[in-house]
């Protein structure tokens, strides 16, 4: 058992090094070393057929049995929306990125970085999507890569952006975090991910946001967005 565990760790390390070499992503705020460190901080996903994996699959089936048509409309909408507009419900209708160019620029660059980082992590872990494990699941879509479940990319995006937005609009922190949680939960409603995929997205997103904040380029864009939001009366800080 010890030997098997050591072998798994060695294989994981080798996969991570190969991913770093194969994915020479260009980041705006992050560095490849920061991304690698964040990936190393993630726990490995449960193996197919393990007790935890079976429990997570059972959870998806329970959600499938209880979800309503309204739940599916909301989850499908979130599946198709991959930008900061998901937080309009938390900030208010005047959070219009078309009228906030500096804020839009910041979150477009945040999106580009977290998406590249999430793709690297997915390629390291190669976890099967729920519908691969159980083809009877009625997922919203089944067009994503079969081994791209961990971490959840949508959840990584939501939690990365939430961490940045809370700093910009701290008075709306509770609503922002609640929206990030709902956005992540809808990945389960859609049966696109398992629970541990979503949890990993939360951990990964927080780590990426923390590292982004260290970048001088991030600080410049953040300051511009903060001034813009203040002028638009979207934050009182």
List the helices and strands and how they pair.
Blueprint: H1 2-22, H2 32-40, H3 51-66, H4 69-80, H5 88-91, H6 101-125, H7 130-133, H8 153-168, H9 173-189, H10 195-212, H11 216-231
Helix pairs in contact: 1-6, 2-10, 4-9, 6-8, 6-10, 6-11, 8-9, 8-10, 9-10
- CATH superfamily caption: Phosphatidic acid phosphatase type 2/haloperoxidase
Q: Please bin the fraction of helical residues.
A: 55-70%
Strand content: under 5%
The CATH architecture can be given as Up-down Bundle
- Write down the Rg: 18 Å
Low-pLDDT parts are 1-11, 17-22
The number of strands is 0
Provide a descriptive summary of the structure in words.
There is one protein chain. With about 240 residues, the protein is mainly alpha-helical. The chain has one domain: Vanadium-containing Chloroperoxidase, domain 1 (Up-down Bundle), CATH 1.20.144. It has eleven helices and no strands. It has helices spanning about 1-20, 30-40, 50-65, 70-80, 90, 100-125, 130-135, 155-170, 175-190, 195-210, 215-230. The model is unreliable at about 1-10 and about 15-20 (pLDDT under 50).
């Amino acid at each position: 058992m010890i030997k098997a565990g050591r072998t798994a760790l060695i294989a994981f390390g080798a996969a991570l090094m190969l991913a770093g070499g194969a994915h020479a992503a260009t980041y705006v705020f992050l560095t490849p070393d920061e991304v690698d460190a964040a990936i190393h901080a993630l726990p490995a996903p449960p193996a197919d057929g393990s007790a935890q994996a079976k429990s997570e699959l059972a959870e998806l089936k329970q959600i499938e049995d209880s979800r309503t048509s309204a739940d599916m409309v909301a989850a499908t909408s979130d599946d198709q929306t991959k930008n900061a507009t998901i937080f309009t419900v938390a900030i208010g209708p005047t959070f219009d990125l078309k009228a906030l160019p500096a804020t839009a620029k910041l979150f477009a660059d945040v999106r580009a970085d977290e998406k590249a980082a999430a793709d690297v992590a997915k390629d390291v872990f190669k976890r099967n999507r729920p519908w691969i494990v159980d083809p009877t699941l009625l997922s919203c879509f089944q067009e994503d890569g079969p081994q791209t479940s961990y971490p959840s990319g949508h959840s990584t995006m939501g939690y990365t952006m939430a961490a940045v937005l809370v700093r910009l609009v701290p008075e709306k922190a509770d609503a922002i975090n609640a929206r990030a949680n709902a956005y992540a939960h809808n990945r389960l409603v859609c049966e696109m991910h398992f629970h541990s995929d979503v949890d990993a997205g939360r951990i990964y997103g927080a780590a990426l946001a923390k590292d982004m904040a260290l970048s001088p380029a991030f600080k410049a864009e953040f300051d511009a967005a903060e001034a813009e939001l203040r002028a638009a009366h979207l934050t009182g800080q």
